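wait is this the right file?? whatever heres the structure
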């Protein structure tokens, strides 16, 4: 059922096609910046970025038309993509034998057949809620492995929290959670027993429920499932809660948490049979910036090098919130690398704050169409007016930070268009100075890095023409300012002073200006300073004040 990967030049369309009674399920999609001028197909060494949000194959049609938009990629030095690369499967819609179609709520009865379809009660036209959690197990022989597709899910709740409605798939390594509206190709399930849990509390006339297809095939010779016979237990769903930290507990707090900013880019590499758990602090979320499978010439698990290895960028395995676990069993086939098996999986990620102070104005757009200024001193959280409800608007905000800095803009929730990535009626757009064309977004419901600016100023346009878009909340962004990297290739270069010679003689500490004593005492605004090697700084407080050092750290450019 895996089909030949498809490539399309930017600003053109491709058609993903299956035979009758099959449906298109996209496994991965990537934007690519080609090293070879004029190329519209992936070659090793290309800069690639995840493009799953550009895919809108949400019906049971035998074909799906995908438009390869021209998009500026912050992961590729803000260059525009040359092509879109898509890998997909064709999966059965129904069974000729009714005995091969199973009810997920028939608790206590294991499924042992080689293939079949699992549905929720009343799917698709007689949608029903459940009074309790449904459980159904699939038994997999020890010499076999299972492939599973979520070919249709349309239930309530929003991606990320899944508080009232959910589908869990549980194996001996990890748990996959989905809700709302999605179609998904599970990457790998490592267990002799797979548990599927289904629970829906929300009722709405257009909901359909759930449909899955599975098949059990011979276990590949290179398969490495370390716990295939492990005991599998069901997941007890718990709503998102705010964690209270015991005051007497002493822990080592990362510097970025003390500063209240995003972490540096962190990474890990998994060879065959290895796993890694990402755990961000409280009130932080996981942003997976890169998810790469690599094929080495030697066939050995070497350190990741995109210039030497054939690599394929895919969407993250699942939606992470505060934590998640990655496991690479060592059997991922990469069609763009001659159908070879990936030697390793490489992941870049950050932990970003999700509960910072708001910087967005709580006012309507100016009637004269003028831009609304927003100053980014260090960081801040933007919420669209009336969030989490849509309101008809057409505003342009002027984001500005300190000279010599850029802004990284992360999506906490971009839900504007009812899960449809056709950004015509509702969207946000980031436009650099001197450009008439910007980068559009309308659906990004998992934490992600949306955009990195070229300079310290940027136009941010927010447009809502259809305020009745289904299950759409608006926009919530986390924006952070940082010093412009020396190798930043877009925008105007920052004017810098000549390099300072390191002193070899004692220096004189400068004296701060005299501060007037104050009759009304209150905490002063936070002061931040960068001190180059070999330099010093001196500060004075008014009479009756004292210093409180919030944080300090060394930095390497």
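ok assuming it is, sequence goes like this
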């Amino acid at each position: 059922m895996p089909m030949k990967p498809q490539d399309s030049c930017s600003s053109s369309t491709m058609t993903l096609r299956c035979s009758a009674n099959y449906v298109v399920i996209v496994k991965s999609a990537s934007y690519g910046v080609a090293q070879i001028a004029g190329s519209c197909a992936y070659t090793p060494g290309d800069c690639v970025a995840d493009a799953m949000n550009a895919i809108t194959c949400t019906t049971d049609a035998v074909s799906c038309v995908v438009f390869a938009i021209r998009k500026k990629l912050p992961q590729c030095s803000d260059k525009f993509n040359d092509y879109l690369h898509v890998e997909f499967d064709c999966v059965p819609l129904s069974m000729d034998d009714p005995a091969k179609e199973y009810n997920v709520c028939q608790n206590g009865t294991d499924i042992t057949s080689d293939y079949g379809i699992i549905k929720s009660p009343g799917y698709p036209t007689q949608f029903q809620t459940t009074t309790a959690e449904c459980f159904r197990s699939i038994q997999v022989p020890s010499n076999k492995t299972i492939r599973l597709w979520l070919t249709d899910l349309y239930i309530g709740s929003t991606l990320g929290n899944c508080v009232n409605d959910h589908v869990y798939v549980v194996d001996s390594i990890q748990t996959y959670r989905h809700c709302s509206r999605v179609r998904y190709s599970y990457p790998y399930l490592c267990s002799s027993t797979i548990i599927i849990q289904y629970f829906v509390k929300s009722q709405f006339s257009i909901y359909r429920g759930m449909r899955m297809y599975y098949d059990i095939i011979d276990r590949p010779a290179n398969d490495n499932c370390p716990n295939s016979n492990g005991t599998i237990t069901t997941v007890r769903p718990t709503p998102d809660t705010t964690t209270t930290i015991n005051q007497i507990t002493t822990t080592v707090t990362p510097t970025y948490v003390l500063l209240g900013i995003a972490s540096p880019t962190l990474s890990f590499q998994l060879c065959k049979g290895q796993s890694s758990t990402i755990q961000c602090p409280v009130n932080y979320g996981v942003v997976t910036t890169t998810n790469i499978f690599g094929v080495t010439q030697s066939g050995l698990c070497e350190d990741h090098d995109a210039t030497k290895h054939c690599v394929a960028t895919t969407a993250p395995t699942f939606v992470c919130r505060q934590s998640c676990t990655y496991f690479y069993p060592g059997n991922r086939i990469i069609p763009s690398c001659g159908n070879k098996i990936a030697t390793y999986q490489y992941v870049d990620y950050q932990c970003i704050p999700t509960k910072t102070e708001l910087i967005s104005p709580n006012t309507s757009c100016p009637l004269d169409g003028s831009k609304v200024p927003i100053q980014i001193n260090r960081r801040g959280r933007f919420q669209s007016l009336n969030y989490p409800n849509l309101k008809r608007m057409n505003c342009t905000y002027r984001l500005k930070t300190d000279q010599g800095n850029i802004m990284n803009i992360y999506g906490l929730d971009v839900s504007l268009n009812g899960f449809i990535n056709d950004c015509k009626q509702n969207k946000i757009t980031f436009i650099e100075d001197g450009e008439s064309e910007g980068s559009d977004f309308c659906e990004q419901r998992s934490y992600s890095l949306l955009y990195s600016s070229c300079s310290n100023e940027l136009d941010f346009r927010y447009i809502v023409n259809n305020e009745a878009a289904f299950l759409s909340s608006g926009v919530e962004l986390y924006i952070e300012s940082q010093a412009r990297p020396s190798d930043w290739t877009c925008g105007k270069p920052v004017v810098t002073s000549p390099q300072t010679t390191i002193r070899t003689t004692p220096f004189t500490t400068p004296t701060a200006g005299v501060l007037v004593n104050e009759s009304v005492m209150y905490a002063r605004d936070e002061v931040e300073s960068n001190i180059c090697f070999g330099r010093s700084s001196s500060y004075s407080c008014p009479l009756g004040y004292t210093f409180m050092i919030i944080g300090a750290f060394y930095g390497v450019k």
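Residues 238-251, 492-519 have pLDDT under 50 and may be disordered. so i think its the right one actually
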